[in-house]
Design a protein that fits this description.
This is RNase adapter RapZ. Keywords: ATP-binding, GTP-binding, Nucleotide-binding. By secondary structure, the chain is α/β, with parallel strands linked by helices. The protein has 2 domains: about 150 residues, 3-Layer(aba) Sandwich (Rossmann fold); about 130 residues, no CATH class. Helix 1 packs across helix 6. The protein is elongated, with a radius of gyration of 23 Å.
Length: about 290
């Protein structure tokens, strides 16, 4: 049996995660009073013919009782109770945006600003994040991608690392992505924009990629970039970083940056040490602007 504690920041997706685990055959209980958690674990773990897997949702609504969890977890660890902690997180800007979209009040805001409530909540939940077996940052995850991560951990029993990497192509003329951790400028590469037959195509097409990769300059750049990432990524994993955005930019975000982002994605894809996705932020913006004009 698996006993999973699902916790994390309000607005990071805990309710969604519980529903997904329920679909995966888990018996799910949300916001069970903390004094009852030990009894629940005892009943489920000592009943082999009953519940196969269980998930408990715990969040800031538990208030001062949260401090009791340290004692409970310590006791479970001593008694070798098979429990795991999943912590769902998201960036402050993402959380604020989600609260505004749903028009919900943050439980710790007390009628004040949402960001002050988030700061308080991070402080109160910090010990749970430190104890977590899995940390998933949902800032950039679609609902289906969150489900895939949960299936990977709790259904397929695959190895899981907390780092999630986003490869993001963009155009400098539309601004550098505000959430980028690493930014690489590939405007030194051959530009398909100046070739009439390629101008309206994108880096997702082979003919454009071949043009960008001509003369070997791009290959040399990628070799050096791979060396850097091979060094950085394991250190980010060890440091506990859970979200890494690698932004690759050209002028319009349509040709060169898309080509290089795809090449990096293909190189990193076989790794099992981290989650990985690719986004092309500005790939269609030129055509949209022309239609609007």
């Amino acid at each position: 049996m698996r006993l999973v504690i699902i916790t994390g920041m309000s607005g990071a997706g805990k309710t969604q995660a519980l529903k997904m685990l329920e679909d995966m055959g888990f018996y799910c209980v949300d916001n069970l009073p903390i004094p009852l958690i030990e009894k629940f674990a005892e009943l489920t773990l000592n009943n082999p013919d009953g519940i196969p897997n269980a998930a408990l949702g715990i969040d800031i609504r538990s208030g001062e009782d949260l401090s009791v969890l340290n004692r409970i977890f310590d006791e479970w660890s001593r008694n070798r109770v098979p429990f795991e902690i999943l912590f769902l997180d998201a960036g402050d800007e993402t959380l604020i945006k989600r609260y505004k979209e749903t028009r919900r009040a943050h439980p710790l805001a007390a009628g004040g600003r949402i960001d002050s409530g988030i700061i308080k909540e991070r402080g109160k939940l910090a010990f749970l994040k430190e104890e977590a077996d899995y940390i998933i940052d949902t800032s950039k995850l679609l609902t289906k991608e969150l489900r895939q991560e949960l299936e990977k951990i709790f259904v397929n029993h695959e190895s899981y690392r907390n780092l999630y990497i986003t490869l993001l192509s963009f155009g400098f003329k539309y601004g550098i992505p505000s959430d980028a951790d690493l930014v690489f400028d590939v405007r030194f590469l051959p530009n398909p924009y100046y070739v009439e037959d390629l101008r309206h195509k994108t880096g997702e097409e082979k003919i454009v990629r071949d043009y960008v990769m001509q003369h070997g300059t791009a290959d040399l750049f990628l070799d050096k970039l791979y060396d850097m990432l091979d060094f950085l990524i394991p250190n980010y994993v060890q440091e506990g970083k859970n979200q890494l955005v690698i932004a690759i930019g050209c002028t319009g975000g349509k040709h060169r940056s898309v080509t290089i982002a795809k090449a990096v994605y293909d190189r990193l894809k076989p790794s099992e040490e981290f989650g990985l996705k690719i986004e092309h932020r500005d790939i269609d913006k030129d055509s949209i602007r022309k239609r609007m004009g």
